[in-house]
Amino acid sequence: MNASTERVDPALAAGNRRQLAGYRAEHFGWQVADAVGTVTLDRPERKNPLTFDSYAELRDLFGQLKYATDVHAVVIVGAGDNFCSGGDVHEIIGPLVRLKAPELLMFTRMTGDLVKTMRACPQPVVAAVDGICAGAGAIMAMASDLRLGTARSKTAFLFNRVGLAGCDMGACAMLPRLVGQGRASELLYTGRSLGGEEGERWGFFNRLCAPESLLADAQALARDLAQGPTFANGITKTMLHQEWAMTLDQAIEAEAQAQALCMLTEDFRRAYEAFVARQKPRFEGN
């Protein structure tokens, strides 16, 4: 293969770009303001459970975020006083018991793909967790980059309560990295709830907020991130994820290459010029 055939077609690259402010979600709320996209799980009468359709649409939305030019950070929140109660008992659990192995594997792969797209999108994702945060809802919170909770939040990995293993949607990989192996084992074996204050002590939550200010606090944090060097933040997210499977030597080399790439950006030059002028840099993500 010669060099000319290896180049990325600029027109093709441009064709992948997305403006998601006008996206109309069918199975959850979606809005964009100040470069922050907010996903609202919007079935408060049932504590915001997920369905087959909402799983798939969330997966697709986070997949599109990789190409979004107008969204630089994301907030996930539940409507009402709860985050998400997990998979809908009647619309998901009931039908699953009637499916055969091939169809079940298609479903579990689809739910896992939601986590993959959340981790693969370059935008930092902030989960605003109040009330019930259970099952797949707890996984979505865990797959986010940052988690703000409340003292009354209750996070539970309930899979063993319905006769399933705790290894769901990457839980056995992600949870020990957040709270440690022993604590993760306790939560996954017992299915017990992790309270808000305990969750903050364990490192599951970055901090706790008052319920009435939770969404505003999460959006303010997301706006701060969106105003930062978004290209560099995307590299940070990628490296945080990829270095799970690297040796220290591999990680140091990968970070050397990643940082050299960031040094080519205009944001890096802007930061230097602002420092010299004793001004606050204005990042533009390029």
Q: Radius of gyration from the CA trace? A: 20 Å
- Helix/strand structural class: alpha/beta
CATH superfamily of the largest domain: 2-enoyl-CoA Hydratase, Chain A, domain 1
Question: Based on the structure given, which CATH architecture of the largest domain is correct?
Answer: Alpha-Beta Complex
Helix content: 40-55%
Distance between the termini: 30 Å
Low-confidence stretches: 1-12
CATH topology of the largest domain: 2-enoyl-CoA Hydratase, Chain A, domain 1
Q: Supply the CATH class of the largest domain.
A: Alpha Beta
Strand content: 5-15%
The number of domains is: 2
How many extended strands?
9
Question: Helical stretch count?
Answer: 13
Strand order, largest beta sheet? 1-2-3-4-6-9
SSE string, helices as H and strands as E? HHEEHEHHEEHEEHHEHEHHHH
Question: Can you offer a commentary on this structure?
Answer:
The protein folds into two domains: 3-226, 2-enoyl-CoA Hydratase, Chain A, domain 1; 230-276. The chain has helices at residues 3-6, 10-15, 52-65, 89-96, 101-120, 136-143, 171-179, 181-190, 196-202, 214-226, 230-242, 248-262, 266-276, and strands at 29-33, 36-41, 73-78, 125-128, 132-134, 146-149, 154-156, 194-195, 207-208. It has 13 helices and nine strands. The strands form two sheets. A six-stranded mixed beta sheet has the order 1-2-3-4-6-9, sandwiched between helices. It has a three-stranded mixed beta sheet with strand order 5-7-8. With 286 residues, it is of the alpha/beta class. Helix 5 runs parallel beside helix 6.
